[in-house]
Structure formats: C-alpha cells, structure tokens
Amino acid sequence: MLRFIVLVMAIWLSPQLLAEEQVAQEEPRFLSNNVFTYLHGGPGTKYRILGSVEAGRPITFLGEKQDGYSKIRDHKGRTGWVSSKLVTANKTFRVRVTELEAQLKELNTVVSQHDEQTAALTKDIKDKAKRLERELSSQTAKVQQLQKDYDQALVDKNAAVAELKAVKDNQQFTLWREGGIIAGIGALVGIILVYLPRPGRKKSRMF
Q: Distance from first CA to last CA of the chain, Å, rounded?
C-alpha cells in the first residue's frame, strides 16, 4: 500500500518537477551583432534550416548545448539550434538602442507634459498679473478721484469758512453802525432838549 502511494505521488509530481527544471533551464540571451544567423533543426549545419534570426534579437536559451550549438527559442516563438558563439548574455547594440529609444520617448513625453504644464502655469500667472494690473489701475483711479473730491471739499470748506467770517463781520459792523446811529440820535435829542426853553412856572395868587 505504501509503495502504491509513493508511486502515485511520484507520477503526480514528475510533470511538475520536469516543468520546473525546464523553466529553470530557460534563460534570456541575445544573438551577437552579426547580420543574421540560421536557425537549424538540430545541433549542426547538417540539420535543415528552419529560418533566420536577425542579429541582436532577444532569444531564450533552453539549457541544452551540443557540438558547439545551443538550443534556443527566438522572438517569434520558433525553437531551434544556433551556434553557441553567437549566443551572449550581454544586451546587444540593437536591444540597447531599442531600450534607449523607449527611454528617450518616455523622456520626451515627460518633457512634453512638463512643457504643457509650464505653459499652462505661465498663462495662468500672466492672466492673474493682468487682472491684478487692471484692478490696481481701477483702484488707483478711485484713489485719484477721492483725492480730487477731498481737495474740492477742502476748497469748498475754506470758501464757506471765509463766507461765514464775512457774514459775521458784516453783522458785527451792522450792529456797530446801528448802535452808533442810535447813540448819535440819543445824543442829538439830549442836546436839543438842553437848549429848548423851559416853560415858566405860574405865580400863585394870594387871596
């Protein structure tokens, strides 16, 4: 019974172990910067050619080497053999250029977005500056008008004060003049009364 259980577990685990081993053996590689290389059906030139792989393309090394050839899977998903001398773990010029182009495109996108944000921010700042300038101009005009109104009010006040003083002076002069006239009339009447003949007293008769 125990042997049967061990056998079942071994059969069940075998595909998983094989799959894990196969995945572990697969490693990313690149073809060298030659123009291209042929993909053979076996480890050597005596095997038929399945196609060609362009230089610099990323490939997957499947962990098998034989007679100076390595078994790979190319970028199109084809499985075959190529010369091990052409397989490298270093990124090729083509891959680096592709990555640099992608990075440059990403940087251009970031710069473009930054430029758009900067342009929008600059426009917003300019608009706010124009609004503030118009508001400042309006407030300055109001202040100037208020200053004119104040100056005019001050002139009107001084004129009113002067007019009031003139009225008071005129009233005082009128009072003095009227008082003088009354005093003169009184003095004249007094003088006239002094020089008027007094009526004689009647003598009383003695009986």
A: 200
